[in-house]
Structures are given as C-alpha cells and as structure tokens.
Prior knowledge:
Layout: E1 16-17, E2 61-65, E3 77-81, H1 83-95, E4 99-104, H2 105-112
Antiparallel strand pairs: 1-3, 2-3, 2-4
Amino acid sequence: MFPPSPSASPSPSGPADSSGSSGASGPSGPSGLSGPAGSAASAGTGAVICSAKGCRAPAVWVLAWNNPKLHTPERRKTWLACDEHREYLGKFLGARGFLKDTVPLEEWEREHGSDG
C-alpha cells in the first residue's frame, strides 16, 4: 500500500483560443481553466465568464497569448478573466513567455468582434 499523496492543486483543463474552438491544444492552466473565450464560456446565457476554474464571474479582461513552439507569431489564443483572476492568469502565462497582451474585453470586442 502506498501512503496517501500530499494534496495537490486541482487538475487543470485547457484554455481557449480566439477562434472560439475548444482549447485542447493549449498549455495546462493554473488551478484549472475552463471553456473557450466566447461562446461556450457563456454557458448559453450570453454572459462571457472568467476562464479560471470554478469562477462564474463576468469576464472583463482578455489575455491574448500564444505558444511560440506551437503557433505562428501572429496567432492569438485567449483566456478571459474577471478582475480577481486577471493578475493570476497573466502571471501563469507570463512565466512561460506566452502572454502577448492584456486588454479590456470591450476593447477586444471592438477590435476583433465578439467571436475573437
């Protein structure tokens, strides 16, 4: 018998991409991230929610990122964040050299449309 494993952080799920498709190809997210930026993240309510696992707060920030080992330089994938999780998610992406930009959701939608 093995002793119980020490408590670990929750298992993450993948991030979203700016095309609105599932983020299965992205990096593992901090404390688990859920849903794509946009359609599925809205849970059918029309409200866009934070990508942090378990957070149901409205998203007000877009963290645009790209993994240079996987994506062309112009490609941008997105995570959404509420005010509470913006810094945390940004630090996670930044530590890996993935974070390219953080902009208010309203500004992102004006520049890229609501579908990313």
